[in-house]
Amino acid sequence: EATGPVSPPCSCLNDGVCQDGTCVCPEEWVGPLCELVNFCEASIYTESIAGGILKNLTFQRIIVGRYSSSAEKCEPDTVNGNHSIAIRMCTRVGKTPTLQRPQILNCNENLDSLASQVETADFSNISAIASNTQILTSMPDRLTTQSISTAANIAVNILRKPNISTDSQASTSVMATVSQLLDANETEFNHNNLSDVTASLTRTMEEFSLTSNITKSNIAIQSVPLKLNSSTILFFAQKYTELGYLLSTKLEIQENVPGLNEDLNTEVQILLNIMNNKNGRAGFVLYQNSKFFKSRTYKSHGSFSKRIVSGNIDGGRTSGVELAFSPKYNTSEFQLRDHACVFWDYDTNDWSTTGCTKGRDQFLRCKCNHTTNFAVLMTFQIKYKYAKPLEYISYIGIGLSMAGLVITMLFQIVTRKTRKSSVTWMLVSLCFSMLIFNIIFISGIENRNARNYGSDTTRYEQQYQSYDATDNTLLTSDLVDPPADPWCTAVAVLLHYFLLATFMWTALNSTQLYLLLLRAMQPLPGRFIVNMSVVGWGIPAMVVAITFGVTYREGKALNYRQEEFCWLASLDENHNFSMEKPMLWSFLLPVALILLFNFIIFINITVSVIWKDNKNLTRNKKDSFMKRVIGTTSVVVVLGITWTVGYLMLINQEETSLIFSYVFCILNCTQGLQICILYTFRSPIFKKKVSEVFLVFSMPEIPAYLHSKIYYVSKSHLAKHAKETFRPSRMVSEDISSSTLSNCS
């Protein structure tokens, strides 16, 4: 925000990016300045494999905390033919990334064969099954729905083995497998047949959490015995600087605390108020995302991670649960608009807000009155933030443009007979469509439902907000089928239509310029204005109707429009630009074709008319140059050539995109004002009218001489001769658009 505090500059190393005064490092580097190595170099390890054969295993660079697969594969004729024969992990010992010993895969086992063995396997074979399962799921991007289901069932069966927590190797391998499953593609979890499997896995994880303490990249399990005098127990994940050099996350459990931790470095925390303590145990599971908790009514946003914290008590009950979450999404790009507290109902296998209330201060807070096992999630509504200067430029520029467009239309209509110009209808139609678009844009581009939460940003900065049960509902943005908003859909349709119409009229203006200036010897086609009107208003209507009919469905309005803004949908669930959304094929592509057409006409007019050398020109070179610049600018503005800058905003580089955003905003928000200046204020007729009404503002006329050819035309045929003259222009833009030929009939 332009009005917010200025973050101090940072000198990031190794391609780190300074953001809000902090270095955001690539995954290969960590530390305050991205100065510390966070990977293990490529390696070769000699290992004895099946049959006692020594084999060199080659591994590429490995990020700390991750596994890498070997370049060597299983033999093609084995069950796991062409699958990597081993994996190796990189860990950190102190400051130094350290490679662990490779784990070797049994090439004659796959997930299906392991699943058939695990139920009857004795304790001595469990570690091998767990290790092979971990290796077979070590490339999450290749996992399918079926392989996820099979691996999850293997994990459930292993975790249910008696005293499995005493086998550290098997337990660690299973947790690594679960962590890898959470890295699988989001789309693979959308199948209904996975819901029962993941539900079984999460229940089993809760039971396992009572006896183990294991942390992996996507999941952490912590347990603690309850003392007889324990009344509260707090589990939290907190940012801290390990050994003074590495920012990481610390998991901790504290007993008999008075309340939640107020340290702002605490990312997520959960407080249990214990009653009927029978010297039991408490266990917690922290999930880095919500892929195991798929809902029928709630949708997940892939653009950011949602942590889920799960708790379980054995030998006691809770009188209530409190949760606090430190929002990470108040940045220079977007801010948190609202949140809701939901818990996982194991009876319905879905999220629910029943029994939970929410509050907000420096943390997002929840209270739930559940007394048994639970999983709690914060859901969010995000409001994207844009640089304040862009907002100011938009409103000021559009306001001036609207005034300029009204003046231009009135001037063109009132003075048509005086000017004897055929430009009126074409220019008025362009100005009218642009004016209506600007009016709708200013008044309705932002979704009214979004504006209902406009005070949340201020409320976030105020004092602690009491818990509220009535307002704790699943947010509209998080529903699979959000309620219909006919108003926003109607606004999106009108914006789509009038902006397409605006571009269509720029194309028709370029067509008219081509006919008048480059085909001057031929009269305009019959019923020209009528035909142009049908094309100018009809084709955009057809495009909008087809787009709306193809994409819009009852309850699926977001297939056509966006949620935050009443404009065409363009992003997928992961907030990546989608080729399937209507923004591309119903707007960007048609507009690109129109701009290409306009650009070709512009080049022809510029080379053949405006900048064509004239040896008979008697005016000085400076006057001629300025006249040509103004004439060129007039054509650029009326043909909308400046809108091509919008395509440069798609460049995926923040600073470059921001620069083009400013250029685009300045040029196109003021397009109506530019038209008014070039096609109205510079007109001698306008100057004369103004000087008559406001003598004090009398503006002397400065003639701008344009070269023209005057053809003498009889009623039946063209004269055999023509003469060249030089004359003061009525208005440079009119000369360019239609009056360069002064007596063409």
How many helical elements? 19
Low-confidence stretches: 1-7, 329-334, 451-465, 696-745
Rg is: 35 Å
Q: What would you call the shape?
A: elongated
How many domains, in number, for the residues? 4
CATH third-level topology of the largest domain: Chondroitinase Ac, Chain A, domain 3
Spatial strand sequence of the major β-sheet: 13-14-18-19-25-21-22
Roughly how many Å apart are the termini? 58 Å
DSSP helix fraction: 25-40%
User: Could you report the average pLDDT, rounded to the nearest whole number?
Assistant: 78
Largest sheet: 7 strands, antiparallel
- The first-level CATH class name of the largest domain: Mainly Beta
Which class best fits the helix and strand makeup? Answer: alpha+beta
Count all strands and give the number: 28
What would you say the CATH architecture of the largest domain is?
Sandwich
Q: Which percent range describes the beta-strand content? A: 15-25%
Give an overview of the whole structure.
Helices cover 37% and strands 22% of the residues. With 745 residues, the protein is α+β, with helices and mostly antiparallel strands. The protein has 4 domains: 10-40, Laminin (Ribbon), CATH 2.10.25; 43-106, no CATH class; 107-382, Chondroitinase Ac, Chain A, domain 3 (Sandwich); 391-448 and 486-609 and 629-690, Rhopdopsin 7-helix transmembrane proteins (Up-down Bundle). A 7-stranded antiparallel β-sheet has the order 13-14-18-19-25-21-22, covered by helices on one side. Strands 16-15-17-20-24-23-26 form a 7-stranded antiparallel β-sheet, with no helix packed on it. Strands 9, 10, 11 and 12 form a 4-stranded antiparallel β-sheet that branches. Helix 3 packs parallel to helix 5. It is elongated and about 100 Å long. Residues 1-7, 329-334, 451-465 and 696-745 have low confidence and may be disordered. The chain crosses the membrane at residues 392-411, 423-445, 494-516, 528-552, 587-611, 632-651, 657-681.
